Amino acid sequence: MDQRKKRIVLLVVLTVVLAALIAGGLLLYHHYKDEPVEGKKAITVVVNHPDGSQNTFTYHTDAEYLGEVLLAEGLISGSEGEYGLFVDTVDGVYADSAQGEYWMLFIDGEYAPTGVDSTVIEDGDAFEWTIEVYN
Fold first, then answer.
1. What's the chain look like in SS3?
2. pTM for the structure as a whole
3. Alpha-carbon distance 44 to 42, whole Å?
4. What is the tens place of the pLDDT at every residue in 28-80?
């Protein structure tokens, strides 16, 4: 087999392997992603203000995603971007991105792996917002 045919075969094999890896990744993602929970849920949201004060809110909701609840309650606002809602105001406090500030969402004390509008809520969940500053 000449060099050209070997390269074509190699390219086809690599393409098939790459397609299989992508398909496997998508299957794993769909298998392990959080599914919305239906029904009434109670959640707690703590807001840590830059001045050191703290407000705690408890919501009872049928919503499936955190963003739905917090937007409906007027606790957060922001702008839609390519990755979902970018929250710039929480509990009336604006995070000035020109100063490097942004609101960070925590779930049960851990950095949230998802945005607020794709965070699935379950009964008893605890969320926390804190202004962070990047350099």
1. CCHHHHHHHHHHHHHHHHHHHHHHHHHHHHHHCCCCCCCCEEEEEEEECCCCCEEEEEEEECCCEHHHHHHHCCCEEEEEECCEEEEEEECCEECCHHHCEEEEEEECCEECCCCHHHCECCCCCEEEEEEEECC
2. 0.71
3. 7
4. 666 565 565 566 899 999 999 999 999 999 999 999 999 999 999 999 999 99
